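quick one: nicotinamide-adenine-dinucleotide bound model?
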Amino acid sequence: MKNKKILVTGGAGFIGSHLVRLFVNKYPNYQIVNLDKLTYAGNLANLRDIENKPNYQFIKGDIVDAAFINELFAEHKFDGVIHLAAESHVDRSISNPLEFVMTNVIGTVNLLNAAKAIWIPYPSGKDAEAPRFYHVSTDEVYGSLGETGMFTETTAYDPHSPYSASKASSDHFVRAYHDTYGLDAVISNCSNNYGSFHFPEKLIPLSIYNIKNNKPIPIYGKGENIRDWLWVEDHARAIDVIYHNAKAGTTYNIGGHNEWTNIDLIRLLCKIMDKKLNRNEGESAKLINYVKDRAGHDLRYAIDSTKLQNELGWTPSLQFEEGLEKTVDWYLTNEEWLNNVTSGDYKKYYEIQYSKR
Ligand code: NAD
Ligand code: DAU
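yep, here:
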């Protein structure tokens, strides 16, 4: 592997921190620069185990700030970008859509412009390896399925929430920069992730926290919506495989063939939690609390990742039951992380460490 300087955006978030850890450990000859604004979702405690490695650098900054992004690219001359920074929570997008437009759309276009300015035209010659712009996206851009069918890479976009509309828009811009300017760009659209360092506003970590603290578990509507869950470390491995092997201009779907209704998932989680907390079977499930449905709530997501499996040989490594139990174990043994995140204490850590770039 050649030496490379790779910019990862959003590396202090849930998926980004797993990706940064994988790349820093697996590719000691790569310099990994993690650019993150450290919003409520960004947490440097997610990266404590690798923060002192010589091939890792953290920079605090906002992808919406075009002048800052242009300067950063001019200074670092990155060999590649893996772009994960985003506002990622659907419920927040319903209350504040503009923030999603700013970060997810404008922020992405700022990065594309900065990459184009330093990379295009690419140096010619047989050995020249084009710097790559990898955009990490979601299955939510495809909209909602009925009882049958799966999303493939050719499914038409049909986003319903402000979050998925902003991600769809950013995907379109990435493709447009490939088609118009010849930027070497790839996109992946992944299903719901779960695992360690997941911010407890999302269904699984929120429910673990609430069960542990004997608080109600809010289930939207009748709990019949279906999501397709993937172990976050399998997503990071897929990004690695795609980043290094995909042809420019391609898209891959990433998913675990692992569909659960929300209520079945929560019942399974309650069972695991009863066992781990030495509660009588059925005790945690008494916390299930049906609440008002999410506006525009997509019924079902299901990803067909055949293309990725056949072309690049990636497959998920974990069965869901095993992954969910591992996830519960992680949250129960990392109580400090969970308590800090829910109390907001973790902000103090990075305010002291990184007040300015
Ligand atoms: P997250 O909310 O946990 O992390 C997002 C990170 O981006 C945070 O560290 C945050 O501080 C940073 N960030 C936000 N705005 C920024 C800005 N303006 N400038 C710089 N940094 C900023 O999100 P996640 O769940 O890790 O998702 C990462 C990416 O993967 C997103 O693009 C999301 O759309 C996509 N995705 C997520 C899932 C999932 O299940 N979580 C599934 C498919 C795709
Ligand atoms: O599909 C990929 C997407 O998965 C990512 O692009 C998003 O960034 C990520 O947040 C996730 O979106 P969801 O909306 O599917 O995830 P969330 O955990 O918010 O909700 C999962 C399901 O559980 C969904 O049907 C809504 C429901 N839900 C969620 C919460 C937070 C509840 O019933 N109760 C809750 O309290």
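The CA atoms of residues 295 and 338 lie 28 Å apart.
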